[in-house]
From TrEMBL:
Annotated SUPFAM superfamilies: 6-phosphogluconate dehydrogenase C-terminal domain-like, NAD(P)-binding Rossmann-fold domains, UDP-glucose/GDP-mannose dehydrogenase C-terminal domain
EC number, UniProt record: 1.1.1.22
Catalysis: reaction(s): UDP-alpha-D-glucose + 2 NAD(+) + H2O = UDP-alpha-D-glucuronate + 2 NADH + 3 H(+)
Enzyme class: oxidoreductase
Name this protein carries in UniProt: UDP-glucose 6-dehydrogenase
SMART domains: UDPG_MGDP_dh_C (SM00984)
Provenance organism: Brevibacillus ruminantium
One matching Pfam family: UDPG_MGDP_dh_N
Domain UDP-glucose/GDP-mannose dehydrogenase C-terminal: 311-412
Length: 428
């Protein structure tokens, strides 16, 4: 099919590449000309495993091209909208980019005959699809579809190629037919439903995953006092098939471009409707306070932080991405600087972005240089390079043997054998 994708960020670019790999003819459109130029040169503007190779492959095969105006989408039968829906000041989803994109679509398809699906893949509050359908009502042959995206950064391409489920919300048989045809080569469970249900499935999923993480983090705080081990507890819980093992990892909390903003947007929708989502409010509160709780624990163990040299390992919001939106590192660094600590930091791909925000931090391109002379090392993001450490070398380089494992991934027994004092999150 002829497909257009408006917005070539994490979701749009991945979707465009993935649909081209599935054999469709795809055009990616973005208002950011610099991004479009890079993409036309087969360079991915984001770090995402496997994406740049696949991008080059489908461009070479003539199945993917890029344009900076919506006119490039004139021939498309299915048009995806994948623009950002960031958090507005009041916590709600800012839909400015979405409405701007929809306006472009209205101008493009208003006069053109031909049956088309306009598909919202961006995460949007319940009712948005209906409002966009209203905005596009002059385009009589356009069918408005909600098809939320569930990919995770760091494994975006493979998640997009092999989705856990395909959720499609629409109100016409033609819309479902076009989506059937589009995803004919993709296996996964289908949920065909209304647009509103599809929209809420997305928010509910993220809110529930965030809830599991905050539940474990709050329990980790208790575990730290009881002298129990949250990782063992998590494993014991996860073996119950009703609970399952995923998203029970305690640590510094969740970051990224989705959980923080989507939980805020869901709360805002509920507030507007006069409904209290008390659990979700607490989920956000636990997440907000988790870095401060851990930094305080570090302060106690180091007997103060003023002029202490702290090495921060990992800066992106999770491994295998360069995304620092709502990364825990930002909050952790902020707390340390406030306490008067001297910081060095390392990340394989996200250091430059953090350096722009915190020029007072010493950024290194190597884990060991980051550890040199440090009174303590704090693991913030579990990149491979930050886990697979030569502990003898690290011990020799550090001023004091203090390890703080903010992701509970360092081998506690092994590092203790090397003479380190190890402190995880809620781990005995
Ligand atoms: N990042 C994720 O892991 C993820 C996963 C699932 C869903 N989502 C949702 O998908 C949406 C996009 O997220 P993202 O992370 O890809 O955002 P992003 O910021 O990486 O990309 C958005 C892109 O849209 C472009 N854009 C903005 N307005 C435009 C317009 N009018 N016309 C053309 N291009 C325009 C921007 O230049 C940018 O390149 C959001 O609603 C997000 O919540 C994100
Ligand atoms: O047990 C866990 C699992 C994750 N995290 C943290 O949670 C955050 C989010 O991780 P993850 O969900 O893997 O990454 P995202 O790319 O943000 O993906 C989430 O957000 C996307 C955007 O909506 C959805 O599409 C995905 O399904 C959803 O997993 C990261 O900071 C992780 O460190 C934990 O602290 N403990």
């Amino acid at each position: 099919m002829n497909v257009a994708v408006i917005g070539t960020g994490y979701v749009g670019l991945t979707t465009a590449v993935s649909l081209a790999l599935h054999g469709h003819q795809v055009v990616g459109i973005d208002v950011d000309r610099e991004k479009v130029t890079r993409l036309q040169q087969k360079k991915s503007p984001i770090y995402e495993p496997g994406l740049e190779d696949a991008l080059g492959q489908v461009i070479d095969q003539g199945r993917l091209r890029f344009d900076h105006t919506v006119n490039g989408a004139a021939e498309a039968t299915v048009l995806f909208i994948c623009v950002g829906t960031p958090e507005a000041d009041d916590g709600s989803a800012d839909l400015r980019f979405l409405h701007a994109a929809a306006e472009d679509v209205r101008n493009l398809y208003g006069q053109k005959p031909g049956k088309r699906a306009v598909v919202i893949k961006s995460t949007v509050p319940v009712g948005t699809g209906d409002r966009i359908a209203e905005q596009l009502k002059a385009c009589t042959e356009v069918h408005l579809v909600s098809n939320p995206e569930f990919l995770r950064e760091g494994s975006a391409l493979s998640d997009s190629l092999h989705p856990s489920r395909i959720v499609v919300g629409a109100d016409s048989p033609e819309a479902f037919e076009m989506m059937d045809q589009l995803y004919a080569n993709v296996s996964g469970h289908w949920v065909k439903t209304t647009r509103a249900n599809a929209e809420l499935i997305k928010y509910a999923s993220n809110a529930f995953l965030a809830t599991r993480i905050s539940f474990m983090n709050e329990l980790a705080r208790l575990s730290a006092v009881l002298g129990t081990d949250i990782d063992v507890i998590s494993r014991g819980m996860g073996l119950d098939s009703r609970i399952g093992p995923e998203f029970l990892r305690a640590g510094l909390g969740y970051g990224g471009s989705c959980f923080p903003k989507d939980t805020a947007a869901l709360l805002q929708v509920a507030k507007e409707k006069g409904v209290d989502l008390n659990i979700l409010q607490q989920v956000r509160e636990v997440n907000r306070t988790q870095p401060a709780w851990y930094v305080q624990l570090i302060r106690d163990k180091l007997q103060g932080l003023r002029e202490k040299r702290i090495a921060i390992l990992g800066l992106s919001f999770k491994p295998e991405t360069d995304d620092i939106r709502e990364a825990r590192s930002l909050s952790v660094i902020g707390h340390f600087l406030q306490e008067g600590a001297f910081l060095s930091a390392f990340d394989p791909v996200a250091a430059d972005a953090v350096a722009r925000l915190y020029p007072q931090v010493r950024f290194e391109t190597d884990v060991y240089e980051t550890l040199r002379g440090a009174d303590a090392a704090v693991l913030v993001t579990e990149w491979k390079a930050c886990i697979q450490i030569d502990w003898s070398k690290a011990k020799a380089l550090m001023a004091r043997p203090m390890l703080f494992d903010g992701r509970n991934v360092w081998p506690a027994d092994l590092v203790r054998q090397h003479g380190f004092v190890y402190t995880g999150v809620g781990r005995s």
